[in-house]
């Protein structure tokens, strides 16, 4: 990540689980609307099953009318790293993804997908079109 510039910095907040400062780095897709739309604080509103997310992503890809972008979130400080790990563990242990609750103008849906360092990127998101 040292060679990349972050595209957003702010808070991720899931009440009763974790709140921390995070930076978003580009991975794949177009980020113009995302950087315009993201608020100072991303509110996680709940959980969703991976199956539901991937069904939806496949429909979006098939329609050809919407764009999908992928970012990597990285905590800013060591203290943020602890809260980040708590949120990661929360979703991983429940086998769920996070659903962002903020209403945005251009970005329709935003999901937090917990991927461990040895996990493969879900095939629905590859090939990457960007810095990877």
UniProtKB/TrEMBL annotation:
GO BP annotations listed: DNA-templated transcription
Domain of life: Eukaryota
Record-given protein name: PHF3 protein
InterPro entries named in the record: SPOC_C (IPR012921)
Boundaries of every Spen paralogue and orthologue SPOC C-terminal domain copy: 3-122
Gene Ontology CC entries for this record: nucleus
